[in-house]
Amino acid sequence: MTDDELAVEAKIYGVxxxxxxxxxxxxxxxxxxxxASLAATETMVLPTGLREARKLQYYxxxxxxxxxxxxxxxxxxxxxxxxxxHT
Length: 87
Description:
- It contains 4 helices and 2 strands; from the N terminus they run H-H-H-E-E-H.
- The protein has 87 residues and is mostly helical.
- The chain has a two-stranded antiparallel ribbon.
- A hairpin with a 4-residue loop joins strand 1 (56-60) and strand 2.
């Protein structure tokens, strides 16, 4: 890849150009399918009221494990405001 192409990928993936030389981010089709399905389900439950939407989920494909966080947002926490407060 040219330096310009590497710079574009660095912006997309948030990885320094030096880290992209000779390597690429790993993309596993089956894992992408699991993540997309989880996102679609959470998007579906919001308007339908099927259940309470999960604010934060962690999928660990190497363990086949999904962990749901039910943490309560703190009003003065920058992290909570971005990741937990917006449903």
